[in-house]
Amino acid sequence: MCGIVGMIGRRDCASVLLEGLKRLEYRGYDSAGIATVDRGEFRIVRSVGKLARLEEALHANTPAGVVGIGHTRWATHGRPSEENAHPHRYKDVVVVHNGIIENHALLRRELCARGHVFSSQTDSEILAHLVQEAYEDGGDLVGSVRTALGQVRGSFAVAVLHIGHPDAIVAARRMSPLVVGLGQGESYVASDVPALLAVTRRFVFLEDGDLALVTADKVEVFGLTDLAPVVRKPRDVAWTPAMAEKGGYKHFMLKEIFEQPRSISDTLGPRLNPSTGDVMLEELDRLGERIDSAGRACMVACGTSYHAGLIGKYFIEQLARIPCDVEVASEFRYRDPIVDAGTMLVTVSQSGETADTIAAAIEAKRRGAFHISVCNVVDSSLPRMADAAVYTYAGPEIGVASTKAFTSQIMVLELLAIWCARRRGAISASDAGRLLQGLAELPVHMEKVLACAPQIQDVARKHLRVQSMLYLGRGASFPIALEGALKLKELSYVHAEGYPAGEMKHGPIALVDDGVPSLFVVPDGPVFEKSLSNIEEIKSRGGPVIAVASEGESRLAGIADDLFTIPKTGQMLHPFLSVLPLQLFAYYVADLRGTDVDQPRNLAKSVTVE
After folding, report:
1. Count of domains for the chain
2. pTM of the predicted protein model
């Protein structure tokens, strides 16, 4: 949520800033702006709404300057408006800021009492005032930024310009992501890697409490508390600009749905050895003894990642026989959780920057838990703070509604479960080998399901005007039902409720009529017949039924109004396949309704504030 881009070099930077902001549109925003330094003056252009409006303003009067910063804002304090859009200026200082300043009201009152006049309702403008005041008191630029941020409670990623220092950008972060890109004779800052892929693939990943002085030729990093020099080694990122482009698809989300066979294959990579039944997760080897003796696992996540965790619970308990709880991160740390040294904490996050999940991990670590991060973004906050990180290799996911990251997450969780099961002797080599062989074959099965997209689009067209839906499943299909309902809500703004099928008669069945379709996830397995009975109950009350079932299941042919089939596989493989029709169904309903699929209203890709 919100996006920062900055550049300093030897060429006009406005076009680079705008391109970077476009690559951050997926984060969610309601206004945007850029500021450059040109011949001793700030040139600031801001607008409300989509970046197309900012682009029009820039075409009319493109600001010159080789140093500049840009921002896309997602409103927290103050309504979306041009005066509340970033960058914010006070006298000689311009800032952009992601995060929330929790003590902004107190700081604003104190500044106003000292004669400061504000031009916006945002918490972010306070930073420009604090930096300016510190600088006027005799501080240098780096020290002034440090002094200003030392007065702030809350989270931030900031980039600061000073009119008297046109050769520098000062950047800092606390609980909000920020990276520095390294080019030839120019440097960049951004809140996420995709913003800069068109200009560099070499990055310095700032950590919490870092402050960086960025010039065209070098980057110096300091500790925010004491300005002690800090070493942050540059890293090369394998993502290419093409990976963050639509590649001929109408939307990023559709592209990412169809990328799932590849992302699953990449996530499996060299990690499988079906002949021995072993999973290669060298990242976890040094935690082996702690994992062996762990009394329980606790997964912490938000949103779609939480649903992945629910499926991971099924894997870990069924395979490794380790008791596993799954917690909503935003609730975890506020209820005095029972966590100790025998707890294996597993955080699940696509971005690795989810504020609630980071806070939950800090609390669990304080209580003695050891921490494994499942994440897609290398060197983001959660992997860095974890005892071990197991990465998904989904590549950049631009669509706000997660798809390929979700299936890659549940793949890593299944690999983790098998790895633990083999160490603890809970599964034989032959059984594990058969399961690993099935995982290796998944990409082919996924391609087969995705080839049914035209049929799924036809069914979506039938339900284009639906106002409410039920999604139902049992076992590991229940979290898939939750995920399918979430996708429909996120994308099409249709009310949808995911529920365990066995709980249907405890409330949700009251919603059933001929205008409320029910989507059942019912692959073959031990609870199929019970699910079939639930479907009969819906049909007897006039409710339309869509079913996701295994190929060759004839008992649904005369009952379900519409049927999506998936290849027959073992139960541990069903979730990877059954979620695909639900992703496509939600996508097509939303696209046919004309909503903004890649940037749904009010949502952001990465929730980096509470």
Report:
1. 3
2. 0.70
